[in-house]
Write a structure and sequence with these properties.
Elements lengths: L12 H13 L6 E2 L6 E2 L13 H21 L1
Antiparallel strand pairs: 1-2
The protein binds zinc ion.
């Protein structure tokens, strides 16, 4: 009894070509240096877009805000 050859999915060259083109035309995300640590980061889009912070510093900043908020409310 012969084993049946496993049919591999054949990707048509047209689809391959399209996929290649879509990768080539897709622009890499613009990166900026983090204003705090200098790491490459993707600039924010939105109200805080002027600040170039990597996600680490962004999180640190957000947690710092939360801390100061808690301290403010604790003092009242
Ligand atoms: Zn940073």
């Amino acid at each position: 009894m012969k084993k049946k050859p496993i049919a591999e999915p054949i990707i048509s060259p047209e689809i391959l070509e399209l996929a290649k083109k879509s990768v080539e035309t897709e622009k890499p995300p613009a990166t900026e240096s983090c204003a705090v640590c200098g790491a490459l980061c993707t600039p924010l889009t939105g109200p805080q877009a002027s600040e170039n912070l990597c996600w680490v510093c962004r999180r640190l900043k957000i947690s710092a805000w939360r801390d100061s908020d808690q301290q403010m409310s604790a003092q009242e």
